[in-house]
Amino acid sequence: MIFDPSPIELPSSYEKVETTGHVFVSHYPPGTPAVTPVVIVTLNRPAKHNAFTPQMVRDFEKLFPMFDVDERVKVVVLTGAGKTFCAGADLEIGFGVGKDRTADHRDGGGRVALAIHRCRKPTIVAMQGSAVGVGMTMTLPAIIRIGYEKGKYGFVFGRRGIVLESCSSYFLPRLVGHSNASYLVSTGGVFPPTSKHFGDLFNEILPDASQVLPRALELATEIAENVSPASSYLNRALMWRDTGSAEAAHLIESRVINHMFGSEDQKEGVAAFFEKRKPNFKANLDDNPPPSVPWWTEIDTGRSPKAKGPSKL
User: Fold this and answer.
1) pLDDT tier at 1 (50, 70, 90 boundaries)?
2) What CA–CA distance (Å, rounded) separates 206 from 256?
3) Domain boundaries defined on the chain
4) Quick one: DSSP state of residue 77?
5) 221 Cβ neighbours under 8 A, 6+ residues apart
6) What is the C-alpha to C-alpha distance for residues 27 and 40, in angstroms, rounded to an integer?
7) Across the beta sheet with 123-127, what order do the strands follow?
8) pLDDT category of residue 33 using cuts at 50, 70 and 90
């Protein structure tokens, strides 16, 4: 049985939310007193090339459930401080050998990936510098990855004597194809983002590192201003929560779209189109969901919490 967690009390400002210091949160534009539709999460260990730590896991598991239930937040942008996005696990800290029973262990990268994946607000990753290991795998649940042309990226697990984590054995072959994924993890090599082995993993590649975050924020703003959060979440769920056949997909899509016909967001989207203006989508993701959601079997890694009281739109 998956027990319901305590409701989340939403902050008046994410810039005031306490973190461990290994992750920094800001509004966009930074310094805006109220919560903004676009929120920036920054890996904040530039002196250590943003090497991954257990403290980062705690911050992600605190922040992303908040974003999930906060209707003020529409899109999350994830980036790194300094010249490197993430140098992988902090090898000076190590991997915590022998601390958990095998049956009890849940890898930190996987906990971060699930926090991003289960958050119904989309994440865009601005990879302004190089990334390897968990620095790559944590980005796979995002909707968009923007890379730096001169950066170096790789899935180096085999060269460190470990294996894929962060749910990447699920995400990576679905994003780049099994052949490319096999090449990347079997060689453990580090490549420029233009390498054919990455397929379309990087949605955009920019020649100047300083362009990466502004482009991610531009895309995030466009999505926040023009896309229904409910539609966005359901579209991603329809793709990731695989039904296994075209016929099963047809049945689920039919049930979901039938529910969305006549919804407030559908009416607003059509009205905005005819009136040549930006839409004002207001559907709450927890109110009146399609009756078929979830159509997938929930796996017991902990149920998502609800918001404590209404968030201010």
Assistant:
1) very low
2) 37
3) 14-225
4) E
5) 28, 37, 38, 75
6) 6
7) 23-27, 38-43, 75-80, 123-127, 144-148, 204-206
8) very high
pLDDT band at 95 (very low <50, low <70, confident <90, very high): low
CB-based contact 39:122 (threshold 8 Å): no
Mean predicted confidence (pLDDT) in 291-305: 81
14-225 is classed CATH 3.40.50.1220: no
161, two tokens: 């004597």
Residues 119/50/139/306 CA torsion (nearest 10 deg) = -10
- pLDDT tens track for 145-155: 999 999 999 99
Q: Are 141 and 171 in contact (CB under 8 A)?
A: yes
Q: What pTM was computed for the model?
A: 0.92
Please state, in angstroms and rounded to a whole number, the distance separating the CA atoms of residues 224 and 218. 10
